[in-house]
């Protein structure tokens, strides 16, 4: 392996700041994890898992979890399909339509979240649509679509053009080229787009808060309203569970090919270095 | 390929129907008036925009601009140094740092804020430590204040600054640093004369990525700031969900977008100019 170029160390201030920042980021989270299992009863600290059980026995929380999954899976499925279509349509084309779609996707990305939320609320009001999980799904597709599209587009840009050309020379139709060549090559990126949309949808609070119906909270919205009431051991347990879910998701993501799709483009060299190091 | 344009029809319609039209609706509503019982009265005028600049609202606007700017500047200063330390660590540590910063960022915002509230709250470890040390404080002033809002903002938006800067450091040729050091430059000179000019694009990107969401932030001031610390995002939300004055809320959000557009244009312009100058 070629030795990595030397990088002169940053000054001590920078290193110290990095460590302090990480400490500041994690101390509250560590306190939250500890408070979920160490509960004070009559002045004594006791170790217990019973609040985790209570979370699973709480029907309103489980309903919220179910809603989060319905919204997350439904919206990310459609956002991925639409995003893949958009990416294929944008790939190596330039005309009025691609200009429009590109512009609109950028617009949806730079919109402040709060404006996104209230503009959709106003629109649903004008359309006289009843607010509920359905409007939440529509809203989530709208804000995740551009992310799914970008993920697939990034992979498409790195595809070798000669595959398509060879297929065309051999007499394949457009449809065959898409089905037999491009889509299989795009599979990891499409999966990546799907996971990304799901995570964005699952985590979203603000947009959901604006466009959801009464009594149809997703988990973050439920957590927000419970938190307004105060802090309880059960909420500690719930938040800890959600944090651990993110952690395991990240570890899985870091090892999967979906993650590499993001990091390989534009930083190809670095990814290669890493591969060499791990060998 | 001939098939391609047809693939764009569905995504285009979706974007038009759920991004563009809603935006236009907000602009139209911002010109209307609030009728009795929160009904929108379709009489058009610029009244809401004039009202937005009266004393009560403009104070909130200035507060929000101040918070977003301070957040951006802290993130910038911290971000440059942190990214520098990350990029010069050895390879294994580097991916650890990336993960360490990405994890809280991927964790739900509400949960991170919950954790912060738990930490500073009554019976939380911070207050317990302080009272053990015999320091007097008002337990409630402690749980909701501006410092806490700033803390929440910086820890939330820092990754948006760090990751573009880290990317820039990754591409940077560190031989230049060594060359400068061989020629007798100290750390400060290396920083300002060698590193900083190469980070301009990433700094601009980071500033936009932090400032834009920070200015419209709702959740952090709402949960960490208390009722006294009203900001633009909270004001807009209140107009929509509580006072049911949609036209006023729409006007405020159009103003919010105008500010963000001007800010982004300014950053891009400055970046272009320095590029030509260099």
From TrEMBL, chain A:
Ranges for domain ABC transmembrane type-1: 65-253
PROSITE patterns assigned: ABC_TM1 (PS50928)
Location(s) in or outside the cell: Cell membrane
Recorded topology in the membrane: Multi-pass membrane protein
Keyword terms, alphabetized: Cell membrane, Membrane, Transmembrane, Transmembrane helix, Transport
Gene3D superfamilies recorded: MetI-like (1.10.3720.10)
SUPFAM superfamilies associated with the record: MetI-like
Broad class of where this protein is predominantly found: membrane
InterPro entries given in the database record: Bact_Polyamine_Transport, MetI-like, MetI-like_sf
Membrane-crossing residue ranges in chain numbering: 12-39, 69-88, 100-125, 131-154, 189-211, 231-254
Pfam family, one: BPD_transp_1
Family designation: Belongs to the binding-protein-dependent transport system permease family. CysTW subfamily.
Protein known as: ABC transporter permease
UniProt source species: Bdellovibrio reynosensis
Lineage: Bacteria, Pseudomonadati, Bdellovibrionota, Bdellovibrionia, Bdellovibrionales
UniProtKB/TrEMBL annotation, chain B:
Lineage: Bacteria, Pseudomonadati, Bdellovibrionota, Bdellovibrionia, Bdellovibrionales
Species the sequence originates in: Bdellovibrio reynosensis
Name listed for the protein in its UniProt record: ABC transporter permease
Entry keywords, A to Z: Cell membrane, Membrane, Transmembrane, Transmembrane helix, Transport
Places the protein is found: Cell membrane
Residues of the ABC transmembrane type-1 domain: 61-267
Membrane-traversing stretches: 12-32, 65-84, 96-120, 148-169, 190-215, 250-270
InterPro entries: MetI-like, MetI-like_sf
UniProt-listed Gene3D superfamilies: MetI-like
Family: Belongs to the binding-protein-dependent transport system permease family. CysTW subfamily.
Membrane topology category: Multi-pass membrane protein
Pfam families membership: BPD_transp_1
């Amino acid at each position: 392996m070629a030795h990595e170029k030397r990088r002169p160390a940053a000054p001590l201030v920078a290193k110290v700041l990095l460590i302090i920042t990480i400490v500041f980021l994690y101390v509250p989270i560590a306190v939250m994890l500890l408070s979920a299992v160490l509960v004070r009863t009559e002045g004594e600290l006791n170790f217990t898992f019973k609040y985790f059980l209570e979370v699973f026995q709480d029907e309103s929380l489980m309903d919220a979890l179910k809603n989060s999954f319905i919204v997350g899976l439904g919206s990310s499925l459609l956002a991925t399909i639409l995003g893949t279509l958009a990416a294929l349509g944008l790939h190596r084309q330039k005309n009025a339509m691609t200009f429009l779609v590109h512009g609109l996707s950028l617009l949806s990305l730079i919109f402040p979240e709060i404006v996104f939320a209230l503009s959709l609320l106003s629109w649903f009001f004008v359309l006289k649509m009843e607010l509920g999980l359905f409007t939440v799904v529509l809203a989530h597709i709208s804000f995740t679509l551009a992310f799914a599209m970008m993920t697939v587009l990034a992979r498409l840009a790195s595809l070798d053009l000669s595959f398509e050309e060879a297929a065309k020379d051999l007499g394949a139709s457009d449809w065959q080229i898409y089905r037999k060549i491009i889509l299989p090559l795009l599979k990891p990126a499409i999966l990546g787009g799907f996971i990304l949309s799901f995570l964005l949808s699952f985590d979203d609070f603000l947009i959901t808060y604006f466009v959801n119906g009464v009594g149809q909270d997703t988990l973050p919205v439920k957590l927000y309203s419970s938190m307004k009431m105060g802090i309880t051991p059960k909420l500690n347990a719930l938040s800890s569970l959600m944090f651990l879910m993110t952690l395991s998701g990240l570890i899985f993501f870091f090892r999967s090919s979906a993650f590499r799709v993001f990091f390989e483009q534009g930083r190809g060299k670095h990814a290669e270095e890493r591969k060499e190091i791990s060998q | 390929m001939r098939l391609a344009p047809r693939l764009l029809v569905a995504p285009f319609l979706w974007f038009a129907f759920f991004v563009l039209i809603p935006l236009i609706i907000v602009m139209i509503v911002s010109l209307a008036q609030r009728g009795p019982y929160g009904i929108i009265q379709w009489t058009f005028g610029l009244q809401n925009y004039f009202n937005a600049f009266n004393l009560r609202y403009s104070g909130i606007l200035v507060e929000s601009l101040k918070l977003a700017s301070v957040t951006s500047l802290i993130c910038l200063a911290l971000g440059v140094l942190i990214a520098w330390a990350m990029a010069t660590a050895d390879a294994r540590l580097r991916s650890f740092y990336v993960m360490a910063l990405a994890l809280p960022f991927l964790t739900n915002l509400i949960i991170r804020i919950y954790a912060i509230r738990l930490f500073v709250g009554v019976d939380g470890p911070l207050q317990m430590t302080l009272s053990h040390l015999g320091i007097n404080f008002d337990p409630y002033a402690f749980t909701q204040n501006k410092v806490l809002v700033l803390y929440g903002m910086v820890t939330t938006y820092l990754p948006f600054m760090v990751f573009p800067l880290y990317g820039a450091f990754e591409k940077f040729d560190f031989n230049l640093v060594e060359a400068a050091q061989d020629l007798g430059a100290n750390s400060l000179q290396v920083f300002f004369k060698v590193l900083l000019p190469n980070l301009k694009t990433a700094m601009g990107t980071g500033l936009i990525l932090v400032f834009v969401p920070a200015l419209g932030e709702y959740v952090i001031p709402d949960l960490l700031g208390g009722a006294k610390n009203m900001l633009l995002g909270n004001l807009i939300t209140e107009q929509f969900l509580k006072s049911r004055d949609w036209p006023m809320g729409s006007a405020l959000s159009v103003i919010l977008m105008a500010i963000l557009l001007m800010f982004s244009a300014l950053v891009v312009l400055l970046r272009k100019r320095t590029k030509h100058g260099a």
